[in-house]
Amino acid sequence: MSIKFEKIKTDGDARVGRIITNRGEIHTPVFMPVGTNATVKAMSPDEMKDLGAEVLLANTYHLYLRPGHEVIKHVGGLHKFMNWSGPILTDSGGFQVFSLTPLRKIRDNGVEFRSHIDGSLHFLTPELVMEIQNALDSDIAMVFDECTPYPADREYTLNSLKLTTDWARRCLRVKNQGQALFGIVQGGMYKDLRRQSVEEIIEMDFDGYAIGGLSVGEPKELMYEIINFTTPLLPEDKPRYLMGVGDLLDVLEAVAAGIDMFDCVMPTRNARNGTLFTSQGRISIKREEFKRDPEPLDPECECYTCRNYSRAFLRHLFMCKEILSMRLNTIHNLHFYFNFFRQMRDAIKKNEFEEFRKRMTPILKNNFNET
Amino acid sequence: MSIKFEKIKTDGDARVGRIITNRGEIHTPVFMPVGTNATVKAMSPDEMKDLGAEVLLANTYHLYLRPGHEVIKHVGGLHKFMNWSGPILTDSGGFQVFSLTPLRKIRDNGVEFRSHIDGSLHFLTPELVMEIQNALDSDIAMVFDECTPYPADREYTLNSLKLTTDWARRCLRVKNQGQALFGIVQGGMYKDLRRQSVEEIIEMDFDGYAIGGLSVGEPKELMYEIINFTTPLLPEDKPRYLMGVGDLLDVLEAVAAGIDMFDCVMPTRNARNGTLFTSQGRISIKREEFKRDPEPLDPECECYTCRNYSRAFLRHLFMCKEILSMRLNTIHNLHFYFNFFRQMRDAIKKNEFEEFRKRMTPILKNNFNET
């Protein structure tokens, strides 16, 4: 087995644990920053390490198209390519194929699609997706799945679920040595189909289990309902990963239900757009009131940005569209996320997760930009 | 006096020296990276320090328009604003007013112009330029000058020279306490006018002297002629600054003539465009041949980029327009520049400057992109 999961402590259904990989330990619940093109946007890998990142996510779809997985294999694998020695999880490309590409055609055998970069024609199969992830040499691979859209009727959702199960079986058959493989649960917004998907997927015995097909446009209440229904059905002794969900209010709900792993572009993308997370809520750095403000962005924050720069400077950099603006903002938002996850783990260890959640919820809901 | 200049060694007319400021020593010949908007594009101030930058240049014109000098003064001056504790030289805005702005009108009293950002109307005078530089609290200020364009007839050039002399006198009259002030020599491509400008400017006794109005479109031979004619006319015991010239072939010519200080956007702008300086000449990182190349950009280089990343990765980042591409390329090019200047200083100390120049010239002329 290429990874080992240890549950350390539970608080209700919330859990603290660790995933031991050949490239380092991951403390859960964990936030995995997204490094789409083999780099977390605006960051260097050294900065990611300093910030406390324990695992990065890279996108199989993007790296397959550019520079090509055989290029990355040729130069020694993804870790060497991007100069990151810690664990890497690669997604399967399923989400991107279904959301980014024009003219996709789903066949039983795989998916035909055109590249969003140059329009070239490609055909991804479960076997090819495993071959790509083998070439990348990531520590955790994901099975190829169809991310069921929202809304989708029962018939579409059932067919999508069956395809995902079939593809999961094919991925498992060609599982790469030394690489963990996670199964993905689909089933849309239908609880019985979610249960069916869980049963079919866990029967195959993967190294971990992901819930896919959420945060795809459905109302929050519905998402929470599916999270709370599906998570307890997953084995307790394996890592549980909620794909693509990263709004911290959603994270609190999911951790309470027993989820261990998250990924999302929210902190990094928001940073580049000038939206920053603080101990008082969310703010937009471009607001006129910050023009002459000598205070740090968040006086309670200890990140590099808050220790060294004023709101006035951060606003100025943003208005000038300086690259340093995106860098400093990204450092701050990622620090906020890592700190939030550390606090969650501490709270679970102390049996205080519900108190933590109650304390953080109004702050997370506070949006200065709307006041 | 706010700065002190010491000549340490000469080799022909080339000289090694140091400028002692309240914020640190500057070893000359020195390259001053350009931090237009209070940041060297793509870099953090800590990275600039690690690279060996001893002085940064900031643009008075840009900072006057955005965020405004009174904002920077309010938050504690430019050093604190941008988190750079070393020396800063601010230009006077003359070059930008004449090159960037639409609808400028030169009057005896100053220059009326419209902002290149929002079209707003402004009037810069020598006194205001000194007030702005006082608010910024830079270590070395420049007098307000008219940068004579090329080509310009004798009459225009003479009038421009007279205006520059008049404005220099007015700047000196309101010289800021604790801030060095450099005079600027104009005179276009007319040797007798260059001599006249030198005589008028050095008579006023500035802390250093700059040659302006070069690298404005004239042929290289003509630029070299004016550099070689003008430089020896400047006092030996003061720093000599050749404004806006940074092509390293030109730098070699100017250092041979006795110039001490340089600024230029060339290493940083080229980096962002993917053009990189190496020990074998200039290359464009986007070339197809680098797609699978596992070697560092320049095997002889010891910069962070070359120690940690392959050409294949650098090409990939550039093709993806990733921010990390601009960062890693800028680190490399600035390292190349600082290393080049260190080698020049070492060569002068060993009386080997001409040998160094002969060795470097073919490398600097080598451009792989044209082969």
Low-confidence runs of at least 5 consecutive residues of chain A: none
Residue-averaged pLDDT of chain A: 96
Shape of chain A: globular
Structural class of chain A: alpha/beta
Mind telling me the C-alpha Rg of chain A?
20 Å
Q: What is the straight-line distance between the termini of chain A? A: 52 Å
Largest interface: A-B, 36 and 36 residues
Number of strands of chain A: 16
Q: What level of helicity do the residues of chain A show?
A: 40-55%
Query: Strands across the major sheet of chain A, in which order?
Result: 4-14-13-12-11-10-6-5
Strand portion of chain A: 15-25%
Quaternary structure state of the chains depicted:
homodimer
How many helix segments of chain A?
15
Could you describe the largest sheet of chain A, including whether it forms a barrel? Answer: 8 strands, parallel
Question: How do you describe this structure in short?
Answer:
With about 375 residues, chain A is of the alpha/beta class. In chain A, about 40% of the residues lie in helices and about 20% in strands.
